[in-house]
Structure formats: structure tokens, C-alpha cells
Amino acid sequence: MAQRKENIVMFPFMAQGHIIPFLELALQLEKTNKYTITLVNTPLNLKKLKSSLPQNSSIHLLEIPFNSVAHDLPPCTENTDSIPYHLFPKFLQATVSLEPHFKKLISELVNEQNGQKPLCIITDMFLGWCKETAHEYGIFHAIFIGGGGFGFACFYSLWVNLPHRKTDADEFLLPDFPEASTLHVTQISPYLRATDGSDSFSVFYKKLLLLWKDADGILVNTVEELDKIGLMYFKRKFGRPVWPIGPVLLSTENRGGVGKEYGISAELCRKWLDTKPYSSVLYVSFGSQNTIAASQMVQLAMALEASGKNFIWVVRPPTGFDINYEFKANEWLPRGFEERIKGLGQGLVVHKWAPQVEILSHTSISAFLSHCGWNSVHEALSHGVPIIGWPLTGDQFYNSKLLEEEIGVCVEVARGMNCEVLKEDLSAKIELVMNETEKGVDMRNKANDVKVIIKNAVRNEKNFKGSSVKAMDQFLNAALIMREMEKGASKNEV
Ligand SMILES: *[C@@H]1O[C@H](CO)[C@@H](O)[C@H](O)[C@H]1NC(C)=O
Ligand SMILES: *[C@@H]1O[C@H](CO)[C@@H](O)[C@H](O)[C@H]1NC(C)=O
Questions:
Q1: Which residue's CA lies nearest to atom 4 of ligand 2?
Q2: CATH for 6-251+462-493?
Q3: CA of residue 436 to ligand 1 center, whole Å
Q4: Which of 75, 118, 229, 488 could cross-link to 7 by cystine, CB 3.0-4.6 Å?
């Protein structure tokens, strides 16, 4: 009889940007054919997830209930995508109510399996409290950071230490992470900049982050060779193993299904790109959750037009409007902009969503003007595309810093949703990167080197295992060792 497969339980935070890397990690683990994978979430999220699982997937989806109304949130709120930003703190705090349900779920899972426990529980960085349940049952518990090591090391250190509150200077170092070098106050999200750490949300948030130290280890969606100092920070901080297993990237066929509709078909996009010369097109996108101010949007439009470069620009309504709302070109873009660039064949303005991976993998693409969200960063670098950084919030500021200062594949062009941007500055940076300038050539060369590094990190051959493959093996081994020790311990008790 075939031995029963070990069960791995995974629990992402209820936000698309968290669920997507968890899903990809789940699919990656499933491919090894050694594990049963159980993804835990609330009903509406699972419904969406189900439709994006490949038909032949055997990943189990297990529901836990969440009553948003009981937490003073709008009905059927189960994902940060469906709430305005100011409700995020309330939503995050409400997710603690999932703990007893999670415990019950694990207890039932153990009972159903005749006492055989899951091999490990992998939970989100925002769900560190799952370790209580994991440790009660003697199950290995890892936190999975879907973002980068450096980005989250800066983010973590800022929240835990609030160094910007202890100085009047605009620039400062992180006390427990001087290796990150100087940060500037404009690299901190408004909420974090304003708080002195004593309001109830900040107290809660810091407590949530401090739970990371109780995990048995941390999985990071990154590549060791590119992210050494960020990984070092967590190892030093927690004295626990840190496993860089990235990039976990959603394969193209799954990406479309995660509840998104493209504003343009992949085929039309490819056909348009086919008509453009090699390395001549700028791709512009600020990701699914972010947008820029209306005044910034106008400057960007004028810069793109003035640069004369080909471009594909994914537009969303500017700040202050519902990001999922219809885009009103005649209100938010310069008069006649769309018609002109269409007439010239210079650009495609895509509403809502574009098939990003298809675009970035096309040889006509030269650079990516990006908010530096980690998925976008991986998707650009896996295809050797250099980045023009315009980070908007959270870890994006530190991703941009890492890419520019440590890796050399990015120039930052603007920062945040409130900064003043001028079309002259934007087009100068666009030309610097896309023209045959010394800097532009250097960035493209480096981006191609990084592409090879990423490719090697995930190589899994008989005689060669990349760093990310090795890290995954080490993580699974650590879980197995704990399982064996638990077995030994319970035998001794008998
Ligand atoms: C599902 O099918 C795809 C495509 O044929 C294959 O690559 C993948 O390994 C399959 N997955 C499972 C779990 O069988
Ligand atoms: C970039 O190239 C364009 C067209 O060849 C040229 O007009 C512009 O001055 C160049 N800019 C830089 C910064 O080299």
C-alpha cells in the first residue's frame, strides 16, 4: 500500500497580494507529489481560489467562518480588496477572531487522520498567532513572507523601533539594521510616519509582528543571491532559520483566473508588441492595489508623449476614486491623449488589467515603470527587464532601494502618491534608462545577469540544485526532524 502523504496546512492573510504567493507556493509543493496540501481561508476567498486552481489540482480547500458585520465591517468583507484603505486596521484586528476556528480546524484534521498530525503549518506574516495552535499540537510552524527579505526587514525594523520618531532629521539609520544604510522620511507610509506607537492599532500591529520570533522558521519569497542582507537581518533578529525559496511566481495560466479580467487580451497585446522594434517599449503599471494622484497622472501622460517612446500603460482611477471603478480618460488624462497616441501607434492605454507576464516576456519591452510591488519585481527580473521605480507604499520603498542601491537594476523616478512630479524629470529618467546611455546599458546588462541568477536559483536537476530548491529541501527536512522528535517524545511518555 502506498504510504499516506504528509499534510501541509497553509493559511494566507485575506488579501490578493498575500493569497497569490501562497497559492503559487501550494502549487509548487503539490508538484513534488509528496504532500497533501490544505489551504485554509474564509468562504468567499476560497470560492475565488477554487476557480483559479488548475482542474487537475488536488489541493484541499478548508473553510473557516468570518462574520465581518460582527466586527463593524461591511457585509461580506473577507478580503482587503473590497474595503477602502482606512478600514484596513479594523479588518486586520478582526482576523484575530479566526483563531478559535483555526484551532478547531486543526483538531478536526488530526482526528480525521487518526491522530496523524500535519507535517507543518505555513501561515501568513499577519497570522503569527497560529503558532499557539501549532505548538499545542506539536506541529512545525513557519511564517511565509510573500515579499522580499530586504523590504520586509526595513518594514519590520521601522515598526518595531520607530527610529524616525527619535530624530528631527529627515534621514536616519535603522538601529538594529544599519546595513540597510540611510532611510529618508519620504520612504515611510503616512500612517507609520505619524504614529508614536501608542495608539491601539500600532500597539496591536507591533504585537503581531513580534510573534514572528516564535515561529520555527521563516520562508521568504526571494532569491538568496539577491537579498543577502535582508535575510541576514531576520536570522540575526530571531536566531531561527530563514529559507529563501523564491521566486514563487504564478504561472500565466493561473494568473488570469484569480478573479481578474484583462482590459486587453494577451493576443492583442502580443500582436501590438510584435509590430515594435526590439527593446523599444516601456511598460507602465502600478499594480492591482495602487494608483497615483490625478496631477501625477497628467504629468506622466505628458512625459510619455514627449519622450516619443512606445509604451503600454495600465491605468486605474487616480487616488480618491474607487480603484475598481471605470476609468474616465477625458477627466484624468490630457485632452485627446488616448486618440493621439493611438493614432501615432505610440502607445496602448489599458484599462484595469494587462497580461503582465506576457508583456514582460516580450522582446520589444525595454523597461518597466513600476511601483516595485514584489510580484512585479520578480516578473520583471525573471525576464531581464530593468525597472524605473515609483514606489507608492509599504515595502515598495525598500524594494526600490534594494533594486537601485544593491542590485543596480533600477532608478527611482518618484516616491509616493503625494510627491510633486514634473514631466521633464519623468521623461529624462525614461530616456536615461531606455536610450543607449551608459547607465541604461549597464542596467540592462545587470538585469540580464539577475535573470540568470533567478533561473539558477530554481534549477532542480540531478547534479545541480539551485539555492531556492535547496532552501525548500532544508525547510521540509526541518519539519520532518521535528515530527520525528515529537514521535520519539510521545513514545517516551507511554
Ligand atoms: C496538471 O496538469 C499540468 C499540465 O498538464 C501539469 O503540468 C501539472 O503537473 C499537473 N498537476 C498535477 C497535480 O497533476
Ligand atoms: C534619448 O534619445 C532621443 C531620441 O534618439 C533623444 O532625442 C534624447 O535626447 C535622448 N536622451 C538622452 C537623455 O540621451
A1: 435
A2: 3.40.50.2000
A3: 43
A4: 118
